Amino acid sequence: MSNSSQRRGMLVVVSGPSGAGKTSICKALLARNDRAVWSVSATTRPPRGQETTGTSYEFLSRDEFEKRRSNGEFLEWAEYVGHLYGTPVAAAREALERGCDVIMEIDVQGGAQVAKKMPDSVRIFVLPPTMESLQARLEGRKTESAEQLRKRLAEADGEIGFARDSGSYKHFVVNDKLEITVDEIAGIIESERENPAE
Ligand code: 5GP
User: How many domains does the chain fold into?
Assistant: First the structure.
């Protein structure tokens, strides 16, 4: 018999190239699961569009980030296209202890660190249907400068290769139709909750 206090909280890592649809997927996962929480990362990247501190990211100076990193405050961290990103460990640990799922959208370098430190986490890599669709999505959201866009596209092949070769990701999901992708990922999380060793 199980009740809510016995529910095993899962650490869920969602990675994939910029423009693959990770943020929409994570938002949809959070909307359908009231025991899931979003892991608010720290970053040195400037806010873009409507982003505000504390909801999208905690926006830090490089100095502040480096201090917190030296204090061991991050579960993992990485540099992506010139900016630092890291997952505050305390909030994630506290949510897991309450039996909540923690949804983290992080890059492949971070995914590899989490795979080592927390091997029972669920690690999912989201692929675009085609590389052309990735470019179209990135261009369509109009949040990056032309230079940033070029750098993000240039990263994509390496990220996909690293995800395949590193063995850090067990699940690869092609994001063609958002609803179908979210169903698939929700199913993966439940199946790993029930069968942790699989
Ligand atoms: P963006 O600037 O588009 O928000 O994020 C750029 C990349 O950094 C994405 O691949 C995103 O998943 C990743 N990212 C966001 N937060 C973190 C984090 O805390 N740690 C790591 N390693 N990557 C992150």
Answer: 1
User: So what's the pLDDT on residue 143?
Assistant: 81
Token pair 């994001």 is found at 175
> CA-CA distance, 84 to 89, in Å (whole number)?
16
Position 4 in a domain: no
User: Does 1 reside within a domain?
Assistant: no
The CATH number of the domain holding residue 123 is: 3.40.50.300
Query: Does any domain span residue 171?
Result: yes
- Ligand 1 center to 85 CA (angstroms): 6
DSSP state of 144: S
Ligand 1 pocket, mutate which of 80, 84, 117, 143 (most atoms under 8 A from CB): 80
Q: Please give the residue range of the domain that contains residue 151.
A: 11-194
pLDDT, tens digit, 9 for 90 and up, residues 100-120: 999 999 999 999 999 999 999
Q: Is 12:189 a contact under the CB 8 Å cutoff?
A: yes
**C-alpha 84: how far from chain center:** 15
Q: Which residue has tokens 């169903």?
A: 183
Q: Are strands 83-88 and 41-43 parallel, antiparallel or unpaired?
A: antiparallel
Rg for the chain (alpha carbons), in Å?
16
Specify the residue with its C-alpha closest to ligand 1, atom 12: 106
All residue ranges of the chain with pLDDT < 70 are 1-6, 197-198
**Number of Cβ within a 10 Å radius of residue 177:** 10
Instruction: For ligand 1, say whether the CB of 21 is within 6 Å of any of its atoms.
Output: no
